[in-house]
Structure formats: structure tokens, C-alpha cells
Amino acid sequence: MLKPRSTPTRELVNLDGLWRFALDGGPGPLDTTLEAAVPASYNDLFTDSAIRDHVGWAWYQRQVRVPRGWAGERVVLRVDAATHQGRVYVDDVLVAEHVGGYTPFEADITEHVRGGQEFRLTIGVNNELTGTTIPPGTITVSADGRRRQTYLHDFYNYAGLARSVWLCSRPAVHVEDITIVTAMDGTVEYAVETSEPVPVRVRVLDAGGAEVAAGEGATGTIRIENVTLWRPGAPYLYELVAEIDGDLYPQPFGVRTVEVRGTEFLINGEPFYFTGFGRHEDTPVRGKGHDNAYLVHDFQLMDWIGANSFRTSHYPYAEEVMEFADRHGIVVIDETAAVGLNLAVASGLTGAPPRPTFSPDTFGEATREAHAQAIRELVARDKNHPSVVMWCIANEPASNEEGAREYFEPLVELTRELDPTRPVSYAAVLFATHDNDRIADLFDVLCINRYYGWYVATGDLATAETYLEHDLRGWADRFGKPIMMSEYGADTMPGLHSVWDTPWTEEYQQAYLEMNHRVFDRIEAFVGEHVWNFADFQTSHGIHRVDGNKKGVFTRDRRPKAAAHALRARWRSLAGRK
Ligand code: GCB
User: CA angle 498-519-395, nearest 5°?
Assistant: First the structure.
């Protein structure tokens, strides 16, 4: 699905702002005095805990006027994200329904609206997570009758309209989709889908707008002479303008290749070493609401600290983030929202007897189909971003359990079918070791999450170091693939200090990271390190958390903890060497 853009043939009205908001409602006029900001999660906007803890549908509503000049055009409503399920009504008519909280959807509403006139736009959002949603969760009813949502991941289940909503015009016969695959010699393979079979022309423009290649036909291969590559830290973007009679759409792209060869991760044929973070979309008050000020500032901090990459843990991020990464040469590992497919982790936290993760009664066919759909929508949305160098299709699944292979094999195949150009990975949980993991051979890169010195060997970095080295060497030796640390981190209260190895202090976070780095530097197949987490973030309540997860190298309001300076020294010196 193409991102809405204003072009000579398409217009856009941004519908962000204040919308009427209520927990009870439907397509009819909402009976409420509340207003909610869009984009923002609704949970932290209000002081009423019934809203924060609400489980089920919540309703957003506003009047929208269709521009007068749009008569004769198709009118499309585009929701960048409705977490986790959305229903869109134009006046009383249901025009779209979508499941999956982090990918966009749209509806052609031409038949229901008139140029120059107003309509009542209502969007219902549902935050329920179940055994067949991605991510999964469970709803229980407490003794006093309240519905309660639990889930198998630690970040808070923020919900609402956390990204933009758009009203778009487009011609009746239009460009529907564009796929671009590049090679280092400037070869550009393209495929343009149109709403009807019509002649297609394409032009490639360089960053200055000069035409550098052109072709005809819905699919084809053209070549940019003297191509400038997109490189990490040195981005360069071209635009492929797809034209048909009456419509044109400019699709930005970069020319670069990605390849796994032996134990190396190659971008443009050169070994790449990932430095950076697992992150979250998480800020005070907005929750997961996209915010351009935080976008700019977070990328500034990543640059300051020497991070060349990040993983979109644990869901697809706003498209603005992906485009920013393209423009600024930051490398992205793009993750689906499949976090928590692991009942052993849940039983470890709750003391409940373990149930098999993959079974018809737990995560079976229906979960896998939801997961497949999440992969389809992620690849469809992000396939043309040069910054995206790898798909991560799950975080910490029970890859050591029976049924894991049967569950994952078709999903890996699907990902490769959808995009044969990018490596595929998953992030492995502590319980999945090189001895008992059942799926790693299906993937290209070993992404390992480990917390030795935090959850295991807490406060004992010497023991942690031996455990970690043994563990990582086992993976490297058994699989002979590139290996990276996709999560390592220690909760840290800013301002807490100690001369000893005392968990939660700023010194401990730094010593913990340094211990990890000593081990990484001893393992040849190592291709990267992503600290958990870029910044502190909100979680559900739990005795492991103090107002959220404090493993941030920056606080939630983006101030550096001591470890930030140590990381900066390491990553800036690595940038010179690796
Ligand atoms: C993990 C998860 C991540 C958590 C982290 C933690 O393994 O992948 O989502 O936030 O551990 O801090 O416990």
C-alpha cells in the first residue's frame, strides 16, 4: 500500500488534531465532553483510571469536510494505525475494518461523501489481545466483574490512534503499488501495479530532480549510470516516478544491496557491524503516539552516541520513522508485532504451570494466520526502504519447544517469497540455547537476546561473563551464521551510584555493558550489538519494574545515564575500525 503523498494528481488533508472521544459509542454522535489528541495513545491523556485500564472498544469522532474540488476524484480515508483493531464509519456506514495495530489501512469512501460537504467520521479502536492476535494476550474477568487484559510482553498495552489519519484524493485509474529492487551497478528492477491495466512509464530522478533513467511498461529493468549508492551513514535517495495517463506517484528509493555471506553481514558488499538499540515508540503522555519532535531528537541522540542502526522492537514503527532512517542513513531491522509467543516466559513470571506454546489450544493455526498477515502487511509497507536491511519476524518465541518448527517454517518461507532480497531473523530468548533451539537453521542471522548479569547471575559479572561466552560460542559453532546481540541491558535508576557491582546503579549498567563487549570482541562471527533499550519505557505493573522498564541508556525524557558516555566512546571508536 502506497503512503499518501501530495502529487500533481493527488491531494491530501491531514485529519490530526482533537477528536471527540468516548469509551461508549458507535457510529452515532458521541455523547461526550472528552476530546483526545490524534496522534496519541489515549491511555495517559486522561486522569480517569477507567480509561487507562479500559479493555475493549473506544471511540473517536470528528466532522470532516471533503474539499470542494474533489468532485470526480476517488476519495480515500487512510488510517496509519489503529491499535489493535479499527472500525471506520462514514456517518452510519461501516467503510473499513482492520486487525493489527501497527500497520495502515484505507477505505475508498467515494460513494458515501460529496465534494464540499461534511461527514461524521467515527473510528472505533479495540485494544483487546487474545490467543489469536499478534501480539497475543489473555482477557480475564475479575471477581468484581472488571475485564482485565494481560499479555506476554512487558511494554504497556497503549491503544488508540497513535499515528496520523488522512483524507486523500486520487484519480479513478491510479497507481496502486510499486516494488523496487536494486543492484550496486545501478540496475533498478521495478514493478508497478495499477488499478486497471494501462500503459505505464517510469522515470528515475536523482536527488537534485534530474532524470537519470527512464523506461516503459508495468515491469522492467532500467539502469542508472554512475550511480550513487545508499550507504549507512551516507544515504542517497532517488525517486522512481511511476506515471500513467491521469496519475503519477513518486516513490523514493536507495540503491544498495544486502547479503549474508558465511558469517558476514554485507551492505553493498562491505561487512557491516550493527551498533545501536532495541527501541520503543514510547513517550510521556503520548504513549505510542508519533511525535516529530521526539523523532528528530531521538535520531540526534543516536547520532551523538554513535549508533548506526536500531531494531523496531517489538512492532512496525510509524512510516515517518522509516523515511527518516532512509534520509539519514540509519540501518533498521524491521520487526513484526509477534512478541510473546512464549508461554514458558509467562509461567516463569506468574508461577503458573507451563503449557505448551504451540498447540491447537494455545498458539495454533489461527495465531499463525494472524502472524502471516502481520508479515504480509509489514513487507508490503516497508519493502522499498533502503534503511531496512533485515526482517525480524518474532521476538523471543518458544523456539526451543515442540511445534516451533512447524509453526515457523511456513512463516519464514512466506517472508522469503514476499521479499527474496532481505535476510530474515528472529530474536532468541534465553531458554532457547544452541542445544535445544529448533528453528535457527531456517534463518539467516542469529539474533540473540541475553541478560547474563541481570536476570541470571545478578550482580556477578565474572560468572555472567563465562556464561555469556559459553552460550554465544555455542550458537556460533553450531550454526556458522552471523551472530548479533539483539538485546542486552540492565535496569538502572538514574542518580543511583555505588563503588561495587550493585545492580540498578549507573556504574553497574556501564560495567555490565563493558562485560558484554569484552565477550563480543572475542567472537569472530559477531556482526553487531543492540543494547536494550534506547530509553526507559512504560510497562504494565509488576514487581520487576519501577514506573516502567529502566534499561534505557537514556531516561524516558531522553537524558543520558552514565553508560551513554561509555557507549559513545566505544561506538565512535568502532565506527573507525569495523
Ligand atoms: C526481553 C524482551 C523485552 C523486555 C526485556 C526486559 O527479553 O524482549 O521486550 O523488555 O527482555 O527488560 O526484560
Answer: 90
